[in-house]
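Table S5 (text form). Sequence records supplied for joint modeling of the two-component complex.
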Amino acid sequence: MHIDPLGKKWANITQFIASQFKGGDPIHIDPLEKKWTYIILAITGLFVAIIMIDALFHKINPPSHVETIDSARLHLSEEFAEDNLGVQVDGKGNVMVRIVAGRYGFYPKQVTVPSGTPLTFRWASMDVIHGIHLPMTNMNTMILPGYVAELKTDFPKPGNYPLLCNEYCGMGHDHMWASITVVAKEHWAAPVKTTSKGGSSHE
Amino acid sequence: MSQLSEEEREKIIKSPPVGTWALMLIVSAGMVAAWLFLYYGVFLPRGAIDSL
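The corresponding structure-token record, covering 255 residues in total, follows.
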């Protein structure tokens, strides 16, 4: 005789859920506990609905840029070659920041950007999965080897922002940090190409 | 030891659990308020990550 334990278990679960809605009582659940369950489900539904509405109608989404790159040959790539890292301003005045993450540092270690200005950050990993997190800002994403992580943001307030790796990447993970200095827009001068060259996090 | 009579005990058991309901409402309202504050007061004001 064929026995299907998984199918039987599933049947029992569905039967149990159905009986709860029909008012049956195969397993006694205290009415107060049931009400508490409904409240929790309602609260969870509310939170999910708010997140879904913002995601669908206001485009509040996690970074999802998909662009591939050969992580083993970053130094030979045109974009992420050492001389091309750091802050650059293109002909249209867009500020672009390119940073490479590798065990255990960010290259360059420090960049200076203007406040209140749209910034495009492009990140690439030279080895394993890294993450970036700038506390008190919206900068938070993963950097996957083989992909370019791109996000647009701006910093409304000048200050020194610590940049931390928030994805465990090895024994030196807790030493992997950099900083972003945000200066007032009027005090910021666009750097000449290659001004911010790759410094090490180990200095 | 409890000094309640059997009648009083029975009455308490059969009465609605007002304290429990109050606790549930306080915990629920607190949790919802804290979540809404973090979402609308902290997370959204930092701006959306505008990825291409």
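Note: The longest helix of chain B spans residues 18-43.
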